[in-house]
Specification:
Blueprint (H helix, E strand, L loop, with lengths): L21 H20 L10 H14 L3 H12 L10
Length: 90
Amino acid sequence: MTEERAPRGKRIAIGVRPPANPQAEAWVRQGDVETLQKSDLFTARLTLDITPAMRARIKVSAFTQGTTVADLLRALLEREFPESRSETSP
């Protein structure tokens, strides 16, 4: 009894790559641009230890304002520590 084997190196044709859809390509690349802009703005991470009760209050406040906790805290910190503020003022 002989065993039949497929010849080595035989290639199976998959087909031609479909043409690219320029609108779809632009839409996908648009997300990359938005991600880069956001990461350029916020590159440092800050860790705080807070009580679970305060965390809950912050989350509820963010939810009722229709924003994320991160965006809420960034706005709060920006109001408290604006770039134009002089270092000598209280």
